[in-house]
Write a structure and sequence with these properties.
This protein is mainly beta. It has one helix and nine strands. It is elongated, with a radius of gyration of 20 Å.
Length: about 220
């Protein structure tokens, strides 16, 4: 129930951002839309000497967004995304499959390019993610087996809420009544996901990942 309540709260906040804020009299432009693409994550371990051999695996990321421009350049964008964050433990041939509901709040800067409606975009801001899935899969006696991270067989102690800083670059281009675009972003995790009381406090595990997304927006 907590996960569903968080998703509903995010959706309500998204609607509020794109309906109430433009009526404040200061906004030059507002847009709602969808975005989707691929992401690739890794885990940063400290100290490095305890780090397992973790490798990247690509996953899907996508969802809704709503944005408002307060000036011709500066704006604010709220997103509600579903993000797969899969990694592989190469020495043990194990796949770690994570999924999160992610809510970034991004400060945006859009710039005009002479003689073209295309606009480059810079953005950055905080993000909070809530775990919706955590699984470990691997080969056992020639058969692929999958365990939930809370299964008695493995019991991975972890923090299920991940705070991060998101930043990146993008571009949008008007086509008919829509804004088509793309973006590259980096997610720099701030939260120590290691919640195992049996380990030393200096052993930290944080997320690092990038994503490429395509966007379709509708000005309102």
């Amino acid at each position: 129930m907590n996960g569903k309540r968080r998703v509903l709260t995010a959706a309500a906040a998204l609607v509020l951002a794109v309906t109430v804020m433009p009526t404040a009299g200061h906004a030059q432009e507002a847009v709602i839309g969808i975005k989707g693409g691929i992401d690739s994550y890794n885990l940063s371990w400290q100290p490095d000497s305890i780090a397992p051999n973790i490798g990247h695996k690509t996953g899907f990321v996508g969802g809704l967004f709503g944005g408002v421009m307060f000036t011709k350049v500066a704006g604010l964008q709220l997103e509600a995304l579903y993000s797969q964050r899969n990694v592989t433990e190469q020495d043990e041939d194990l796949d770690l499959k994570f999924a999160y509901f992610e809510i970034p709040l991004l400060f945006t800067a859009k710039f005009s390019v002479a003689d073209t409606p295309m606009r480059p975009i810079l953005f950055a801001g905080p993000s909070v993610s809530f775990e919706s899935k955590c699984e470990v899969s691997g080969e056992q006696d020639g058969t692929t087996v999958t365990f939930d991270c809370d299964d008695d067989e493995i019991q991975i102690e972890r923090t299920e809420t991940d705070w991060a800083i998101v930043f990146g670059v993008g571009i949008d281009y008007p086509v008919g009544n829509f804004l088509l675009g793309g973006e590259w972003r980096y997610n720099y995790g701030l939260t120590n996901l290691n919640n195992d009381a049996d380990t030393s406090s200096f052993e930290t595990v944080k997320t690092r990942g990038w994503a490429i997304l395509f966007t379709v927006g509708y000005p309102i």
